[in-house]
Amino acid sequence: MRTLLVEDDEMIGSSLRHALEGAGWSVDWVRDGALAQSAFADGGYTCVLLDLGLPRQDGTEVLRRARERGDTTPVLVLTARDGLEDRIQGLDLGADDYLLKPFEFRELLARMRAVIRRRDGAAHSVIGGAGLQLDLTTREVLRNGTREALTAREFALLHALLERPGAILSREQLENRIYGWGEEVTSNAVDVLIHGMRRKLGPEAIRNVRGLGWRVAAA
């Protein structure tokens, strides 16, 4: 899955990016509010981790503008601002959750999973239909009762498709979910990844719609 990390502190940002990538996330890290605004507007993120005290543009303004244009991407605010009014303002502007610094990385991951589940309208950690499911906690695919581990990019691919079963996702949409901002992507990268997934899950698990993209069966 792909996240936008907005954090101006070099030590915190570097540490978080390293830990998130180790947990299987693709991370775009920006260090000020203006860059955050641009990256946020480009879209394709599963979740946004947003600091409030940013140079050039405050995090609350980044959040306000995103919600005003109808962006519903889950936003988890990471901040040292512990005042009640700050928390109320962030939540009123559309933040999905608040986490005060310093925090444990395991709690951050748990809160990220929680806001994503709420966005998906799910009270549990499994999405998909009876034949093909994805466990967001263990990062495993469930295929006809059998569990199998996934690589980070396989997980991101299936998560994108299973969020919208039956919908056709284009090559560009899938690339945006699988790869980081500015990361070089070869022309056939998605094809190679899907070919490997079909070998693992069966040829009908992910279907190609010629000239348009790929989809999984509607639940």
Helix content: 40-55%
Taken as a percent bin, the fraction of beta residues is 15-25%
**Distance between the ends:** 21 Å
Strand order, largest beta sheet? 2-1-3-4-5
Mean pLDDT, rounded to whole units? 85
Number of helices: 8
Query: Which geometry do the CA atoms define?
Result: elongated
Beta-strand segment tally: 11
**Over the alpha carbons, how many angstroms does the gyration radius reach?**
18 Å
Quaternary organisation of the protein chains: single chain
Estimated structural class: alpha/beta
Identify low-pLDDT runs: none
Following the backbone from N to C, one meets helices and strands in this order, namely EHEHEHEHEHEEEEHHHEE
Q: Characterize the biggest β-sheet.
A: 5 strands, parallel
Domain OmpR/PhoB-type: 124-218
Organism: Variovorax soli
Protein name: Two-component system OmpR family response regulator/two-component system response regulator QseB
Keywords: DNA-binding, Phosphoprotein, Transcription, Transcription regulation
In short:
The protein has 219 residues and is α/β, with parallel strands linked by helices. The chain has helices spanning 10-22, 33-42, 59-68, 84-93, 105-119, 152-163, 171-178, 189-201; strands at residues 2-6, 26-30, 47-50, 75-79, 97-100, 126-128, 132-135, 140-143, 146-149, 207-209, 213-215.
Give an overview in words.
There is one protein chain. The protein is of the alpha/beta class and 219 residues long. The chain is elongated, with a radius of gyration of 18 Å. A five-stranded parallel sheet has the order 2-1-3-4-5, with helices on both faces. Helix content is 42%, strand content 20%. It has eight helices and eleven strands. 33% of the residues are buried. α2 (33-42) packs parallel to α3 (59-68). β10 and β11 (213-215) form a beta hairpin. The protein starts with a strand and ends with a strand. The mean pLDDT is 85. Keywords: DNA-binding, Phosphoprotein, Transcription, Transcription regulation. Residues 124-218 form the OmpR/PhoB-type domain. The modification 4-aspartylphosphate is found at residue 51. InterPro entries: CheY-like_superfamily (IPR011006), OmpR/PhoB-type_DNA-bd (IPR001867), Sig_transdc_resp-reg_C-effctor (IPR016032), Sig_transdc_resp-reg_receiver (IPR001789), WalR-like (IPR039420), WH-like_DNA-bd_sf (IPR036388). Residues 2-116 form the Response regulatory domain.
